[in-house]
Specification:
With 341 residues, this protein is of the alpha/beta class. The protein is 40% helix and 17% strand. Helix 2 runs parallel beside helix 4, helix 5 packs antiparallel against helix 6 and helix 5 runs parallel beside helix 7.
Length: 341
C-alpha cells in the first residue's frame, strides 16, 4: 500500500487468475488470463463507535475510509443490477456490491450519510418483523443478556456450558458463541423459550423491545430515494433449514408484503439468516425461485466467478480495521479467486 504496488495487484486481480484443480491445488500453467470479471460482495451489519465487543461494529471512521477507497477504485453496483449484468456477461471489471444484514438503525445514522455523499449504492436486507416495531431479533436478546449479566458463570442452561466462568471477555464470548450455536439448532418457538431460560440463568431482564436499535419504515423510505435498495431477510430471522417448507414460504411472503406495503414494490433479492451452508437447503432455494426472487446471498466467504449459483452467492470482507490491510486483501482475494480448471 505504501509503495504504490497495490495498483499492480489490482491490475493483476482484474487481468489474470490462478489455475487450480478440484482440490484447489496449483496446476500448470499456474496462471491464465481472466476471460470475464468476477463479482465481490461485501457484508456489514452495524456501523457505530459503541465498541461493543460482543457484537462488534465497523467504526464510523473506518467505514468512511473503506467507502472512499471503493468509490475511487471499484465499480460499485446495486446487487440487483450486478446480478443482471453478471448473468448477461456484461459485468464491468472490479464490480463490487455493498450489503448490510438485519436492518439496524445505525445503517441510517452512520453508514447512509457516507454512501450518499459518495453516490454509492448499497443493499440492506430487512428482517421485517423488527422494522418500525421496537422489537428485537432473537440474537440481539442473547447479546444483551451476556452484555448485562453480572453472573459469575452460566448454570442451568445446558450441560455443555455448565458452570463455565464468565469473568473475562474471551470467556464470555466463548460461552455466548456456544449458546448461539445451540439456539440455531432449534425451531422458533423452542428458541424463544430457551432464550427466556437463558436470561433467568444469567439473572437479567429479557430485552424484547429497544426502540432505538432497528430501522423505522420512515428511515427505509428516506434511504430508498437515494441509492439504497432493500432485500428480504425473512420476517423474524429464523434458521430456514430448521423450519418447514410452509413456514419458509410464510416468512418470505410476510417479509415481501411488508416491504411492498411500505416501499411500493416487492424485493427481488434475499439474504439467508446466518447464511452458512447449514442454514438453508434445496427446499429453501426452490421456494425463493418459485416466489420470483432473482438471487440469494450467503455468508460463505469468497468471490463469485462466472457460472456461480445465483442462489448461493458468496460474500465477505476483510475484518481488519487497519485500512491498508483492508485495501490489500480486497485485491488479493479477487486475484486468488478461481474456478477449478
Amino acid at each position: 500500500y505504501v509503495s504504490g504496488a497495490l495498483g499492480i495487484l489490482r491490475w493483476c486481480a482484474k487481468s489474470i487468475m490462478p489455475v487450480q484443480d478440484q482440490w484447489q491445488r496449483a496446476k500448470f500453467p499456474f496462471i491464465k488470463a481472466r476471460k470475464a470479471p468476477n463479482l465481490q460482495i461485501l457484508t456489514y451489519h452495524r456501523v457505530n463507535d459503541e465498541h461493543d465487543f460482543l457484537f462488534p461494529a465497523t467504526p464510523i471512521r473506518v467505514f468512511e475510509e473503506q467507502m472512499v477507497h471503493l468509490a475511487k477504485r471499484y465499480h460499485v453496483c446495486a446487487l440487483e443490477e450486478a446480478v443482471d449484468r453478471f448473468e448477461k456477461k456484461d459485468l464491468p471489471p472490479n464490480a463490487l456490491v455493498i450489503t448490510f444484514d438485519d436492518g439496524y438503525r445505525d445503517n441510517y445514522l452512520h453508514a447512509f450519510p457516507v454512501v450518499r455523499n459518495l453516490s454509492l449504492p448499497m443493499t440492506i436486507f430487512l428482517a421485517t418483523d423488527v422494522i418500525g416495531t421496537g422489537r428485537t431479533l432473537w440474537h440481539d436478546r442473547v447479546f444483551s443478556a451476556f452484555r448485562e449479566t453480572k453472573a459469575p458463570d452460566l448454570t442451568g442452561f445446558d450441560p455443555s456450558v455448565e458452570r463455565v466462568r464468565l469473568g473475562s471477555l474471551p470467556q464470555r464470548i466463548l460461552v455466548m458463541e456456544k449458546v448461539l450455536a445451540i439456539l440455531r439448532q432449534l425451531d422458533e418457538a423452542e428458541r424463544n423459550q430457551r432464550i427466556s431460560v437463558l436470561c433467568r440463568c444469567l439473572a437479567v431482564e429479557e430485552r424484547r423491545v429497544d426502540h432505538n436499535l432497528m430501522l423505522s419504515w420512515d428511515d427505509v423510505r428516506l434511504m430508498s430515494r437515494d441509492h439504497v435498495s432493500f432485500g428480504s431477510h425473512t420476517a423474524s430471522h429464523p434458521i430456514l433449514a430448521r423450519v418447514s417448507a410452509e413456514e419458509t414460504e410464510a416468512q418470505l411472503v410476510r417479509s415481501c408484503e411488508a416491504i411492498r406495503q411500505h416501499l411500493g414494490q416487492r424485493p427481488m433479492t434475499f439474504a439467508y439468516p446466518n447464511g452458512t451452508k447449514a442454514d438453508f437447503n434445496n427446499v429453501t432455494k426452490q421456494t425463493l425461485k418459485r416466489l420470483g426472487f432473482k438471487c440469494a446471498v450467503t455468508t460463505e466467504f469468497g468471490i463469485n466467478e462466472p457460472g456461480a449459483d445465483m442462489f448461493e452467492l458468496k460474500r465477505g470482507r476483510p475484518w481488519e480495521d487497519h485500512f491498508p490491510t483492508f485495501a490489500f486483501k480486497l485485491s488479493w482475494y479477487r486475484l486468488m479467486s478461481s474456478r477449478a480448471a
